[in-house]
Amino acid sequence: MITGLLPNTTYHFRALATGFGTGRGADRTFVTAAVAILATVTTEPETGLGLILATLNGTLNQDGGEPCTCGFEWGTDIGYGARTPTEIKTTGQTFSHQILGLFPSTGYHYRAFATNSIGTAYGADRSFRSKPGVSRAYALSRSQL
Predict the structure, then answer these.
(1) How far apart are CA 87 and CA 58, in angstroms?
(2) Which of 27, 54, 64, 111 is the most exposed place for a label (fewest CB within 10 A)?
(3) Matching CATH number, 40-129, of 2.60.40.10, 3.30.1060.10, 1.10.1200.10, 2.40.50.1000
(4) N- to C-terminal Cα distance for the chain?
(5) What's the CA gap between 84 and 56, in Å, rounded?
(6) Global pTM?
(7) What is the pLDDT of residues 80-103, one digit of tens each?
């Protein structure tokens, strides 16, 4: 058995015989199997934060040897409860999704995820607070009513 071979790599070999001289066989090749690993993903800071919307951002750091399905989980606590539509990405690519319908002055949590044939990897939890609603209030005296 040969150890220490790299995945998805072509290797050449041939037989060698010695006795009354040296004989060599024909060159042969084999390719080691591709080894998929769990992806790694980073949850990046949100951008475009507004009163009722925010853009969530992530980076697929390592796809594990195959394209990954990437997206975000989000909600008002670390139970999340909502998922964005997904995108297919490969190592080094970024992805983002704008979420709408946020409540003003409300805290939200989110994390990126990436899924390949091995399973689903999650980025770290991040949080933000949506912008406060702006209103003007005026005090009127009794005589102004």
Answers:
(1) 11
(2) 27
(3) 2.60.40.10
(4) 94
(5) 10
(6) 0.70
(7) 999 999 999 999 999 999 999 999
